[in-house]
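hey can u check if this looks right to u? its 342 residues, i copy pasted from the old doc so theres a chance i mangled smth
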Amino acid sequence: MKFGPVSLDQAEGKILGHNIAGLDGRRALRKGKPLTAADVAALREMGRQVVYVADLDPDDMDEDRAARRVAEAAMGDGVRLSGPASGRVNFLATALGVLRVDVERLTRLNECEGITLATLTSHTAVQPRQMVATVKIIPFAVPEATLRQAEQIALEGGPLIRVDALPPRPVSVILSGSPSVRERVIADFEPPLRARIEALGSSIWVLDFVPLEDERGEFALAERLRQHAAGGAGLIVLAGETAIMDRHDIAPRAIERAGGEVTCVGAPVDPGNLLLIAYLGAVPILGAPGCARSRKVNVVDWVLPRLLAGDRLTRRDIVGLGHGGLLEDVPERPMPRTRLAE
């Protein structure tokens, strides 16, 4: 494709490069339209002698068809396409789910000259009809060879973009603390945890409380974990008066006593540093930090969708959250970051 100025004598049939306003200040001609004889005559009446146009080569694919082809190559299950218009096609989620993006292939595809594909962050929870990605062709056309290269990248190794539906799962919430604070702990944690879980299509199956004052609490928590896992919990969430402070704190000790495996204690996300991820057999356990009391976005919102989707998270998954892991502070924490001495 060639783009540049041409005299009006050569402009007919070529694609208008820029919007053009009439003498009244209102738009007379829209960029991207093939210029007709009447359009050229109108330009002459405006006093124009030259106009910027795009002139497609025989092997060029126009922007709308190119955008559609890239989108069709990249799309997987759980998404539908809208458009094209002005070289753009949008990807919309068809169900409540978790967005999956092959980030390495996305980068390679975006290296194809003139073709762009933007997405939400991989593993984001998405709602039905929510836009999750968009293709935009930058010029008015791209060469067929470039388009085929982008299609090949999008098609290799499975869908580049998909949405995995979130199945409804029964979630057990086990809260803990001193017996005297039971009602306060439940009031603090139950509403925001319930809202998060239900927004993802699951529900709280059991809400339990285990007093933790001495070693007997550790034994009791281990037994409760075994009971909930054996009873059919799809996910167990732990939270309480005091967050998990150490790899050998009560909660991780109880998980191992119950026969579970602690995957990770601590996350490079703030609010949410005191996160725990563990497994009791196939049942994931989320040790929620104190920021789970807040409805503002925190580390729980990043890992909960993946756990409910069935991902078995590793320590590498958690440590990889550090880039972008500095989130807006939550008012519920006892020591906000801003109180630190400068």
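Residues 122 and 129 are 17 Å apart (CA to CA).
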